[in-house]
Amino acid sequence: MKNFPKYFFLFWIFGFSLFAYWQINDPDPEIWVTIYAVAILFSAMAARGKHPLIPLTIAIISCVIGAVYFFPDSVREWIGFELENKDLTMKTQESEEARETFGLLIIASVLSYSAYLGWKKRN
Q: Residue 118, CB half-sphere, CA atoms under 13 Å: how many?
């Protein structure tokens, strides 16, 4: 259990790398690849046991604000639309914004765990 955080963050380095790669075809890749690159950087630091609390807090708050901004009007409609189409292509602006919302929430969750570990280590 002692090595769990290290492997957890290594997993997310790989996951965020895939997310960044998939954003290359996006209409605004420079924004989203940069966001995932920052998440990769913080995850790499966390895997090495470094948890800079102030930058992590700023990143977490920014992700939550972005998620609230992009949050779809209806999650149920978005999921229904995705299931109806049976593919993951970007058909509407709403589906892209919904995916961006959940990407930001994933980043905020992972970085929150890092912040928790940093806070715990400090005390």
A: 20
